[in-house]
Amino acid sequence: MTQQHTPTKAPSLDVVIPVLNEEKVLTASVTGVHHFLSGHMARYDWRIVVADNGSTDWTLEILKRIKEFYKERFDYITLTQRGRGRALRKAWLESKADIVAYMDVDLSTHLGDFVPLIEALDAGGYEIAIGSRLLPSSRVEARTTKREIISRSYNRIIQAMFGVKFKDAQCGFKALTRRAVNDLMPLIQDPGWFFDTELLILAEKNGYRIKEIPVRWTDDPDSRVKVFSTARKDMQGLLRMKLGGLRRQSAKLAQAHGATMDAKTPKRGT
Question: pTM to 2 decimals?
């Protein structure tokens, strides 16, 4: 009697692209990501999800046309309030995918680096994978000296304040398992650019395994990031977490898992 084998269900993957008034590059960006995923991520049941957080240009009309063209491989959500962190939080929590990821619409990070990012979660046993521009084997092009100094200084401040090991909190190229999303997203407070840093600090300090992937990255001269105002808000976020915010978040996380706050209790991933 021959044994019947049940086909293995393909892991599901949602790739989120947060946008704000990106009518000029949106179609080309989605087309490029769709082409890449079609050619390199065939073993996954993937979708592209654009999270529009408050656009006032023709972004929404373009999203409707893209949806008609790509159908089940594409979807979008709209938010009336702005904030990249708010958009990612909503998209990831509403997703049912086994793995969720995000990348910036300008595609500054080489798409070829997406494969090892996802494999770290699917086969490597990690719960979070992040692209890094600050590893020795990373390749960064066209970045101004000012941005480089600010980025390196900011990440060193994070390491000094919290004793974390990750080196690049801000690269717009990250992926999480469904379990990490369900555990961590309800606790993240920042709706803007500090979202990434808050997520990574909370995750590492509570034992979630983080894989940092070197990336090939080209600076976007049309970046919407306002460096100095963003840096000020980032420092405010770091102080909030240092002055009790992280402790309260960690306590809620432990309570949700039915764990104790005893220092002898092993952390997740150790």
Answer: 0.90
